[in-house]
Amino acid sequence: MSGNTPTTSTTATPAPSTWKTSGRWSTGTSRPRTSPERSAAHANARLRPGVSILRRAGARRCGRPRRSDGKVAGPPRYCSHSLHAAPPTMQLIRRLTTRLRLLSHRKARQMGRLSRKSLQLALLLGGAALVALVSLGFARLADLALEWNHAWVSRYGWLALVLIPAAFAILRWLTLRLAPKAAGSGIPQVIGSLSLPPGPAQTSLVSPGQTVWKIPLTFLGLAAGASAGREGPSVQVGAAVMLAWGRFWQRRGVPLRGFHANELIAAGAAGGLAAAFNAPLAGVIFAIEELGRGTVLRWQRLVLIGVLAAGFLVVALAGNNPYFGTFGGQALPEYMAMWVLLCGLVNGVLGGVFSRLLSKGAAGVAPASWRGWIRQHPVCTAAAMGLALAVLGALSQHTVYGTGYAVAGGLLSGEAEGPAAFGLAKLAATVVSYWAGIPGGIFTPALTTGAGIGQHLWELTGGEVDRRVLVLISMAAFLAAATQSPLTASVIVMEMTGSQPMLFWLLVGALSASVVARQFCPQPFYHFAAGRYRRQAQVEAGRAARGDPS
């Protein structure tokens, strides 16, 4: 049976699901992949999934794989022999066309990125220009306020005993009602906001709605006679302006990568300082040393460009005129090192005490039985501080009012002498003005106080050394002791007086004063006050989130 039966083939027909892998096509013939096709497919899978290298090179389509029911079983196939069969000239043209297409796509992406960067840079420069213009306008108002103060004090000096207490009480009441976050210098509010995460608590410290009141309130305080300056308020105003500028464009859908709240606040604050002092380099140093202390900031070009743009724009509009006039300076003899260190020691002690008094406040210095009343009656406390300032003004020939710019300029130029004990009187006047709780900075009053202390030290020398040198170094030393920022103090004084040759001695005096002041006030005053504002903002934000009206 088996010998008569012919043998037949028992090869089974492949299942439809295996046709794609076996290489069968709709024509029923088997066409296995050639080696060039397989290598091209593998290379295509590595480079760009879903796009065939043969197709990009210009190969012709050979058909689609189909199942037994006639439905398409996969993407179209491209034959490599059609590519190899093309003439060499056509192959070259196709390769060049492919490369040009890829190059055009790459350049289009690069131009898109460039246009976004250009837009960001333009908006950043626009914000810096706005900060510079606001700072210039603020400076003009402050100068006008000082002129008004000098006019009424020179004619009706006795009226200060009545007018200054009343003005301080009214300004304190307005500050509490309109802008409680605008009290004081403004730099602690900026530092406190930088240490907070983005949110309502951070925005409240540099809110444009409250910060805008700082300009008219500071103007009225200077006109009344407060021993304050506009530089600290300019820092807070600049931060609020830059933050509002960035939020304005973000709400309108402009993609601003890198325009984070911290960077905007830092750029605006440092730009405001650079514009206020007409010192671009000092703004950069202030941003790095003071604002960046204990705060995580991404020091990109955003911050530095914003600061420099604001500073240089003020130079372009107002001229490169030093704040206190050009001092110049020259190399000092070796024996002056002793006097420089003495300046650092004396200013360090007085600056440390000054910073300590500001940190404690009126309630911290007063007897324990009075502290509760002082905290519960801020308006009456402000009136009492105004009366103390009026008494100090009467004892110092009314030279402690305002910034003290005229006295410091006369001491620095050597053309005039300040009244007796001017440095100590200016220190006390600045303390009571700050304790009143009205808007006003301490930068310029601290420089003026240092100038007065330098005059006192010169009187001890018997005229053996140049008075201007001691005045200059004492200005930087006292500011460094009050803020514990020696680099910022040295660069500010250098740019404000045009004394680049004296930078080394300014640094020596400022560093020594900062070390001594730390023994009296371990924590820098600005950061101590920033902690208070930060905790207050967090508490208020928590109450608002819970819906607590209190």
TrEMBL record:
Point to the regions of Polar residues compositional bias. 19-33
Q: Per the record, what is one GO cellular component?
A: chloride channel complex
Entry keyword annotation includes Ion transport: yes
Give the molecular function GO annotations: chloride channel activity
Q: Where are stretches of biased composition, namely Low complexity?
A: 1-18
- InterPro entries xrefs: Cl-channel_core, ClC, ClC-type_chloride_channel
Compartments where found: Membrane
Membrane spanning residue stretches = 119-141, 156-174, 302-324, 336-358, 379-400, 420-448, 469-493, 499-517
Topology term for the membrane = Multi-pass membrane protein
For region Disordered, the annotated ranges are: 1-44, 57-80
Keyword list (alphabetical) reads: Chloride, Chloride channel, Ion channel, Ion transport, Membrane, Transmembrane, Transmembrane helix, Transport
The answer to keyword Transport applying to this record is: yes
Q: What is its main location?
A: membrane
Protein's name in the database: Chloride channel protein-related protein
